[in-house]
Design a protein that fits this description.
Layout lengths: L5 H22 L8 H14 L7 H30 L14 H32 L7 H34 L6 H15 L2 H5 L1 H9 L12 H10 L7 H7 L2
Length: 249
């Protein structure tokens, strides 16, 4: 181009950009995440053990920011894992039950219950026959059977009495309260419905939803199992002593 020095123009543009970047960098205040005084003493002690005499302030700031970033990543993973822990796959059409251990155990328990009832019925029949017998000369075995039959009858009456008392108490208490998992699922479904694009597309629908009470967002709960799962997946902590201590708790 005639009359224009491209070299001077490019240097002027670079100088302007560098001034803007330096002003933006100076406007950002560097706030350390960790408490400086105890952290500085700890880091200096570790440096002396490894033969390092001087540790600059930039090292403290860098390690502090690295600690903050590390904790942020762990908390993000814990938040995601806590949602997966509460997710119910039974109603998802993309999943099918391959092996239901609970149902199998329930079947075995029902079979054992039927066998136990049959044994109890046979034993009860023997005891009732012994009670109905009117032989004048009773041997000690028959007397024991009669005594056992009386005890069995008293136990059955006590069980019937307890069932009646429990049913009366449940009727007085009222319907059962919702479990925490049901409340979480209801809150999640209502929140997803309120945040859907169809509700915010038209102004009329948004005005209608504005009058309704927005459900309060529930706090996510993280337990020790979530942290153990994260530590098992992390390369740095998969064989650490801290993980083994957490597993022993």
């Amino acid at each position: 181009m005639a009359g224009v020095n491209l070299m001077e123009e490019s240097q002027r543009i670079l100088a302007i950009n560098s001034d803007l970047l330096s002003s933006q960098t100076r406007s950002c205040k560097d706030e350390p995440f960790l408490n400086i005084s105890p952290f500085q003493k700890r880091l200096e002690t570790l440096a002396k053990k490894h033969g390092l005499s001087d540790v600059s302030q930039d090292v403290f700031n860098l390690v502090s920011h690295a600690t903050q970033e590390r904790l942020r990543n762990i908390l993000e993973k814990l938040s995601t894992i806590s949602l997966h822990r509460l997710e119910v796959y039974r109603d998802d059409p993309m999943y099918e039950v391959g092996l239901d251990i609970r149902s199998q155990l329930r079947v075995f328990e029902q079979i054992d219950e039927v066998e136990r009832r049959k044994r109890d019925a046979r034993q009860r029949d023997i005891l009732m026959r012994a009670v109905r017998s009117r032989s004048r000369q009773e041997d000690p075995e028959q007397a024991k059977l009669k005594e056992k039959a009386k005890q069995l009858q008293q136990e059955e009456e006590e069980v019937i009495r307890k069932r009646a008392a429990n049913s009366t108490a449940l009727a007085a208490i009222g319907p059962r309260k919702k479990r925490k998992l049901d409340e979480i699922l209801e809150a999640t479904s209502s929140t997803s419905t309120a945040d859907s694009p169809s509700s915010s597309s038209s102004p009329s629908s948004s005005s209608l939803h504005g009058n309704q009470q927005v459900p309060r967002q529930r706090m996510r709960r993280v337990i020790l199992k979530d942290l153990i799962f994260v530590m098992e997946q992390e390369k740095e902590t998969t064989k650490s002593v801290l993980l083994y201590k957490a597993l022993l708790k």
